[in-house]
Write a structure and sequence with these properties.
Strand order of the largest sheet: 5-6-7
Structural class: mainly alpha
Radius of gyration: 20 Å
Strand content: 5-15%
Number of helices: 15
Largest sheet: 3 strands, antiparallel
Helix content: 40-55%
Distance between the termini: 22 Å
Shape: globular
Order of helices and strands: EEHHHHHEEHHHHHHEEEHHHH
Length: 358
């Protein structure tokens, strides 16, 4: 199955063996979008790789930036000013909102509900991309984080614009859920379909909403408490069945928690600088050593592993992309199901091939 056309934005193929319409074997085939991201980064300056991280999961450039910046800050021992920490949380949770909204829309599209749910999701996403554009100058390839802070402060009135989007989002989510969550077709097509057990999820290294849908309480915002997340009150929603419906519900419930975090961050953001004055971007050479920085990206654990030999480029640069790791259990989820279910199960994993192939 797939790819349909070489110019599609993410090319993926499944080798599927069927008995009638029942899946008896399935192997994911990827690598069509391999761009040598990690090797290129080893011959590029630390800062020069920041824009390339935008292209990993192109829905979530700001969280990609943050994970990379966190790894370099650990390596170099840089501090981040208070205001920049708040801006990182605000932009990360806005990213989670638009990622999960689009996932729900795409999942319905994969199920055959063409148009309406996806367009509703895209309408809300556009409002968030407007905020990103006002802040960073770009809607998707934001290149906003820097080692020791953020590239620039927010423009006048931006915080109030974010507040308006946050205040209006619950109404959209209520409408979205009224349309979808109790829908008979959605439940029939997703409940007990693509069940992932917590044991397999943990042993395969699955993270993010996919892991939490199995009932495993693991969220790096709570486990690591990176940035200033320990200051905020929020729940970690958990599923009971680990099926495709639970994976859909995780995204809906996590969006409501993101709104709670955003309200707290918008109320508490202080004045002050957005860059550590000691941070030196030009001629940046961290001392020899190694560091692993990771965050709870919308799709799961996103980590960067760096080794420095004291030079201007990383000696080693590796990415731990959630899309790739989460995709490895696709066969386990699909065996015994109808071939039409494989498309829905794949959609519920939430992958971006830029991150899978790198």
């Amino acid at each position: 199955m797939g790819p349909q056309h070489p110019s599609t934005h993410g090319v993926f193929r499944m080798d599927v063996v069927l008995d009638g319409e029942t899946v008896v074997k399935l192997k994911p085939v990827f690598g069509y979008l391999h761009r040598n991201h990690e090797k290129i980064a080893e011959s590029t300056s630390y800062l020069g790789s920041m824009p390339y991280t935008d292209r990993l999961d192109y829905f979530c450039s700001l969280t990609n930036n943050w994970a990379y910046a966190l790894a370099v800050e650990k390596l170099a021992g840089l501090a981040v000013p208070e205001r920049a920490e708040y801006l990182r949380v605000i932009t990360a949770e806005l990213t989670r909102l638009q990622n999960h909204t689009c996932l729900a829309g795409f999942l319905m599209q994969d199920m055959g509900a063409s148009g309406t749910p996806l367009m509703y999701g895209f309408r809300e996403r556009e409002r968030i991309l407007d905020l990103f554009e006002a802040l960073t100058g770009a809607r998707m390839m934001c290149n906003y984080m820097r080692f020791g802070g953020c590239r620039c402060d927010v423009p006048s009135g931006w915080i109030e614009e974010v507040r308006q989007v946050v205040d209006g989002y619950p109404r959209f989510l209520d409408e979205f859920e009224a349309l979808l969550t109790g829908n008979e077709i959605l439940m029939a097509r997703t409940q007990q379909v693509g069940v992932l057990s917590p044991e397999l999820a943990v042993s395969a290294g699955i993270t993010g909403p996919m892991l939490r849908a199995t009932g495993v309480d693991y969220d790096l915002r709570k486990v690591d408490g990176y940035g200033i997340y320990p200051r905020f009150e929020f729940r970690v929603p958990l599923g009971d069945h680990g099926d495709t419906y639970d994976r859909y519900m995780m995204r809906i419930l996590e969006m409501r928690e993101s709104l709670s975090i955003l309200r707290q961050a918008l109320d508490g953001i202080p004045d002050g600088p957005v860059m550590d004055p000691k941070a030196k971007l030009r001629g940046f050479r961290p001392k020899a050593g190694e560091a692993y920085g990771r965050i709870e990206a919308p799709k799961g654990e996103l980590g960067f592993y760096l080794i420095s030999d004291g030079g201007p480029n990383p000696y080693r640069y590796r990415v731990r992309p959630p899309s790739l790791i989460n995709l490895t259990v696709l066969e386990d989820l699909c065996l015994g199901h109808n071939v039409a279910d494989t498309v829905i199960i794949l959609g519920s994993i939430d992958i971006v091939l830029g991150e899978v192939d790198r």
